[in-house]
Amino acid sequence: MASIIEQGANAQAKHTNGTSTVYGQSLPQADPTKYTSLGDFIDEVNAPDIRASLVKTYGDQGITGFLKMTGAVNNAGTADEVTWWEEARLHQKVELTVTSDVAPTTSTITATQDRAILRKHDVVLWGGTARAVVIDVSAATIPVVKLVFLKALSAAPTAADKAVCAVVGSSFGQGTDQNDKFVESNVVKRTNPYIITKEIYKVSGSQATNIGYVDLGGGDYRWYIKGEMDTRQRFLDKREMMMLLGQKADSAASTAGLADATFGAGSEGYFDAINDRGIVTSDVIGQNTGFTDIDDIIKELDKNGAPAEYAMYCNTDQSLAIDTMLAAGIGTNVGGLAASFGAFNNSQDMAINLGFKTWSRGGYTFHKHDWRLLNDPNLLGITGAATGLVAGVMVPLATVADAKTGNKAPALEMNYKAANGYSRELNHWVTGGGVLGFNTDTKDVAQFNYRSETNLCVRAAEQHVLIKGVYDA
Q1: Residue 401 shares a structural domain with residue 346
Q2: What is the pLDDT of residue 397?
Q3: Contact residues for 128 (Cβ-Cβ < 8 A; gap 6+)
């Protein structure tokens, strides 16, 4: 065994008990019976074998893009809310409430109107079957009308009975004068305020210079960049979800605390607009009834003068139900000559490349697309119900004319505040105390700021379809 070389007057000779003492310290010596490898003496001698690529466990988790793919356009707004006008139906219906019992042999009924639209000589379709002529109208604010049925009713109504009546024409005798009143055209004024969405991300100066294991693109291994990119994507997702799920606060919410202007008053989102004014299914389309469900929807589309081309955005449950329904193929053309591809420059290949499955039924073309947002268990799939919060939507792929201005615009319009070159569509700025070159304060932190002031206008919501899961507005 080698000796310890003495250095200086304080050096001590080697002992024979298996240890050497140098300046009063004992140094362990190798025991040949236990020696196996260099790793017994040196920890972490091997460099870890680290893969620099980041695993996308859940795929592309961004959910933005629905509004753009359905033709929604961005327009600048210059007020606290957007106002637009929608044309009312050309022919109005009226609900009549019988004021007193009617004898079976009597053809005359008095009733109140829910709206003052009936005039003398009008012919109405009572309850969708019987025809009656209005022979008198009172001068009250909500006039009482007297009707005479052209043929006696088989079952006489009683007081408080109601009937929805269509005005189908008029009946005048020979030599009579013109009507003494006229019906004014009507438009429906709609408004939707803006909603402000905000987010921040922070990184300290020290963390901004740390190098990690994961290549975030272009050979950059600084992990804070991943955090900033994810924050930006979450912000964009939340901005879009607020335009889908937004609600206007009611008086109860304002009383409970939203009267505080720092919270805003909400804005009508896409789902609420359809739920309030559009077509709403009671369940998933085609789940157990074959084509019955879609045929019922087509009948409703016909009633509302809907365009012939629709985009369907579905969760997995609804998408599979459609596939099962189409597998039967009875009376349905799937991606064939009967389908229209106007939304895709009349190109079937473009529709396929964008992930749409196209089929037609009853003169309508439907482009089906899976909607990741509805399946995400941390977002709209969080309810745990089989069909989720919303099972899908059907969006008309057409422009809508404003009833007052005549201007045409897509059925969905995403607006943002802007004026004189300043836009609030997406504000992004960074503050910091010399961190990453941003010199605006004394803090050793760079703060990334995001802000957007937007809203969504749903024109002619009566032509949109909400495929209902457990949605409750």
Answers
A1: yes
A2: 83
A3: 164, 166
Give the number of other Cβ atoms within 10 Å of residue 201's Cβ: 19
* C-alpha neighbours within 13 Å on the C-beta side of residue 312: 26
Write out pLDDT tens, residues 172-193. Answer: 999 999 998 888 777 888 899 9
DSSP character at residue 195: E
Residue 424 structural domain: 66-84+191-468
Whether 151 and 198 map to the same domain: the answer is no
Say how many domains are in the chain. 3
* One domain, residues 77 and 223: yes
Q: φ and ψ at 316, to 5 degrees?
A: -65, -40
Q: Are residues 72 and 144 in the same domain?
A: no
pLDDT tens track for 393-420: 999 987 766 666 666 667 888 889 999 9
Same domain, 418 and 329: yes
CB 23 within 8 A of CB 7: no
In a domain, 72, yes or no: yes
Pairing state of beta strands 187-193 and 81-87? Answer: antiparallel
Tokens read off for 265: 């008053």
Q: Compute the distance between CA of residue 140 and CA of residue 83 in angstroms, rounded to an integer.
A: 33
Question: Is the full-model pTM beyond 0.85?
Answer: no
